[in-house]
Design a protein that fits this description.
binds adenosine-5'-triphosphate; binds magnesium ion; 9% strand; P-loop_NTPase; ATP-binding; Rossmann fold; two-stranded antiparallel sheet; single chain; five-stranded parallel sheet; alpha/beta
Amino acid sequence: MTELDGSCIGRERECQQLSALASEGGGQALVIRGEAGLGKSSLLAWAVRQAEQQGHVVARAVGVEAEWALPFAGLHQLLYPLLRTSGAEDECPTVLDVVLGRVAGPAPSLMSLGTAVLDLLARVSSRKPVLVAIDDAQWFDGPSSEVCGFIGRRLTAGAVKMVVTIRCDSGSRFDTAAIPELHLGPLSDSAAQELLDTHYPQLDPQSRRIVLEHAEGNPLALLELPRCMERRDGELSLPNSVEPQWWVPLSRRLEQMYRPRLEALEPSVQLELLRGALDGVGSLSSAGASQEMRYRLRNVDEAVARGLVSVEPTSGNLFFRHPLVRSAVVHMATPNERRAAHSALARCHHNDVERRAGHLAAATVDPDEEVATELEAAARSATLRGGAATAVAWLTRAAELSEHTARRSRRLGDAAFVAGHSALFDQALQLVGSSDPPSRRASPPPQSSLPHTWSSISAATWNPCTGVWSRPLSAFIAGRLRTALTRCSLEC
Ligand SMILES: Nc1ncnc2c1ncn2[C@@H]1O[C@H](COP(=O)(O)OP(=O)(O)OP(=O)(O)O)[C@@H](O)[C@H]1O
Ligand SMILES: [Mg+2]
């Protein structure tokens, strides 16, 4: 019989499935998919506790919105504990060191990187079974998701298990990874009542009925709605903002439950929470996963008192109580407040070219040559680590922020080149064909990036964004782009 604790009421069947996964021989992967607040992270945390009690090695990672565009931010969280456990940290540099940015080298392919991570997992699991636990994978960056999907499909031998949680209303690169799935539904009526009565034994019968009706078996709603009840015209009811409205996605409706408490905070606390949210401070369920690169919340006692932020008992670090608190904080802020917070965060990350670039790109509105130059440097760093898609986005943004037409065209040309080199041909074509970035269409004079792309391609052996491209490959890209462009012009 599966031992359950109070965090998994009514989830006996799911916990049994996770126990079976852990005890079966051979490697396996499982995706837990479900709507916001249904208890995916709680189930994953339960599986992690079980694995730790049995002496397994656990590598944890959590996706956050703020790191969605940072190449390998997710893999980074998984690799450090595994490298430490395997004792491979001091060995010769490998492709893993390239993606971690520790050594320079050719950007690794998905195949070579996936194989290197599989080798590392095999090495660690030869001593102890391993659980790879990935929470909120809908926010995992693209390259990490691809590598983890690659690994998940190949865990047949060895003692490595992988469990991944994904919200079902968000797309993810795990969607095409062909990993078996567990679809999480709402709690049964009896489990919902048990959860509510355990946490709110004193709730009056009218509120209890309203909460059970509105929560529809969603554990997060069962825990948060009682705090939202208000008295209107002498009657207890829920505010209109959290009433069910079919056109509003569930995650947005659940977010509303935190709004009144967030609005009641001092402005300085709201701004501190905004900085934390925009830099990816985790939720309590992610406590223990890597946090060292992110902003540290300070002076938010009021938010702790209102149950919006929690203190992790072992480290004393502050975390959002739930990822939806983080989203609510961001959605409540005005565009100006968000830009100011990104600016402050860019200053905090002055030593980290890529994190800084992400914040600068979001903080800057008007053309700014200094910011454009920093984005170019970040794009170079991302390209060399294998994060071409991010590099293309940053070069495009650098083009938008360029003060001079020639530089703008050169940056668009470089973006097209990096896209073409990474087989992102649709994007490359769009960039080559674009006279100007969309936000600058009104400003004269338009100038195609095409000549700059050709010069990037023909000078590929020394292009600063590439460093290592070979001439035959450059010729191939040039050929593909030329053919596609000719086809486009014939069709028009
Ligand atoms: N079966 C359960 N028994 C008791 N508490 C639960 C259960 N499931 C979830 N909870 C509680 O409900 C809240 C929401 O759960 P959780 O964060 O795991 O949801 P989630 O599916 O991961 O949501 P999201 O998609 O937003 O990440 C948490 O406070 C959690 O402790
Ligand atoms: Mg979760």
